[in-house]
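Hey, I'm writing a tutorial for new members on how sequence and structure tokens pair up, and I'd like a real worked example in the thread rather than a made-up one. If someone can provide the structure for the chain below, I'll link this post from the tutorial.
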Amino acid sequence: MLGKRGGIMMAIETDILAQIKKYDTIIIHRHQRPDPDAYGSQVGLAEIIRASFPKKKVYQVGEMVSRFDWLVSQDEIEDSVYNDALVIVTDTANRPRVDDERYTKGKYLIKIDHHPNDDVYGDICWVNTQASSCSEIIYDFYAACQAELTLPASAARVLYAGIVGDTGRFMYDATTPHTLRVAAALVETGIDATKLNRKLDSISEPLARLSAYVLENMVVTKHKAAYVILTREIMAKYNLSDGGTAPVVPLLGKLEEVVCWTVLVEQENHSYRLRIRSKGPVINELAKEYHGGGHPLASGAMLKDTSAIETYVEKLDQIAASAAERE
């Protein structure tokens, strides 16, 4: 994608760098319910800017999820900090998902993302749906402008974690040769990739017990879709919140015959958050039917209550059936 300023076409990376150089205060946001790529792209970009322009004030804002407090930290800032600030939002497809509504209070807004660009926002909007992760895009930004940018190990560490998280440790289809080259370049900075991988792969005892519950109680449909329902009672039993369920989502996909699957997590208002995944059949159109969206093979959505589950599962099973017919 190209940006246009003053009638001259230039690479969008150069356009973004020009805005970073222009502003003394830069505030970086990312999506709600953050995962490693949300944190990795946000904090990785912040660390690159800090190392490259030490005199600038750079902040990373949003909620802090305790299970990632070993990886990153977040800043608390007053509303006044947004005055005359550049705001950058990473890894967030649509505006309602941006963590901290103050992202609109800056003077200039940039969106950097790898999800389908269904909600175009920002004065500059850079979306690369071919990238494995937003962390990969942030590295590409550094690489395109490396004559003026510095990549510290603190940035490489979180960018690597973001790529590992969004590629399922390089198992997902979004992993490309370029993804692997980026990962190698990050490791070459001297980060301890082995330690990071082990930490990202580790789980707590409550999560281990929930994993056993998921495998014991999942349902596989006629056409090899799968789902499991995690009620509030089950979550309370294992002392876990909705955010703590992310590590169990890949479990259903470990079954060789399962082609698409969903983990349904009951919310306080008795609606259900859906984490939808696939090994091939496109599932983001189904997600859009249920107030969601995302990648073709990894999306999220919401069901209003228990009564909607049966119809949703039937549609998920039909996607699996259609995929089987095409083989």
